[in-house]
């Protein structure tokens, strides 16, 4: 194996090594052959404007869902341009066009680099203002759910009481919105799901999917991640812009988190809360 091939394997041989936006930035900024490309992308990310007044072909203003898709397309376009330009510089990036695992690594790096560069703007200017009311509704519902005994959710107290009060898991969920990119958040959710399954089951009696969702619901209610609805919409929309990360563990963990927040907002949870409140008054 020649020197460049060995270095390429060291750089790109482990796609899961790229978790944070800083991981992704370091990976390509460390390469002399990518210096000019990275500088150009940094300028583009800095100049990127989060447009909130966009009209469709009929002249109607985009609603929140339309804007999410519009922002997603623009971010994906940047990823695709960045990816193509990086591969074309050759050197230690050349193997990313021919070796599947190396390409997977570069796809994750490109996503983290781009989303990490626009995330703060998206939250501040776009997503948080657009979904402020939904975030308020979600926060109220999570507060109500946090006060319920877990058997009201259909969970076995003896089996899951300690799990839903796990301070480390609660802290991990509470700080989810502070993480640097959608992939970073999805990776955190994989870790959370793993710890829940380990604490709530074993090889002889593993947790079923329904219990996993309900335990996660109880934990999210206790964690109260800031702007939980905005967070769900963001990660759902911007995770795996060009990679296939959504097909693996990250996608599964993200779907569970999204499902828990959406279930919290739904009529079924509303009925559980009302029933529990009525029972306490009797």
Overview of the structural elements:
This protein is mainly α and 282 residues long. It has two domains: 3-130, no CATH class; 132-281, Glutathione S-transferase Yfyf (Class Pi), Chain A, domain 2. The protein contains 13 helices and no strands. The chain has helices spanning 3-12, 21-29, 35-47, 64-88, 100-130, 132-146, 157-164, 167-174, 182-200, 209-223, 228-238, 249-265, 267-281. The protein is globular and about 70 Å long. The N and C termini lie far apart (76 Å). The model has no long low-confidence stretch (mean pLDDT 95).
- CATH top level assignment of the largest domain: Mainly Alpha
Named CATH architecture of the largest domain: Up-down Bundle
Using the alpha-carbon principal axes, give the shape: globular
The tally of strands reads: 0
Q: Which consecutive residue ranges, at least 5 long each, have pLDDT under 50?
A: none
How many domains make up the coordinates? Answer: 2
Q: Which value, in Å, is the CA radius of gyration?
A: 21 Å
Helix and strand element order: HHHHHHHHHHHHH
Q: What is the makeup of the main sheet?
A: none
| Subunit organisation of the chains | single chain
What is the CATH H-level superfamily of the largest domain?
Answer: VPS9 domain
Structural class: mainly alpha
Number of DSSP helical runs = 13
| Fraction of residues in β-strands | under 5%
Q: Report the CATH topology name of the largest domain.
A: Glutathione S-transferase Yfyf (Class Pi), Chain A, domain 2
Distance between the termini: 76 Å
> Percent of residues in helical segments?
55-70%
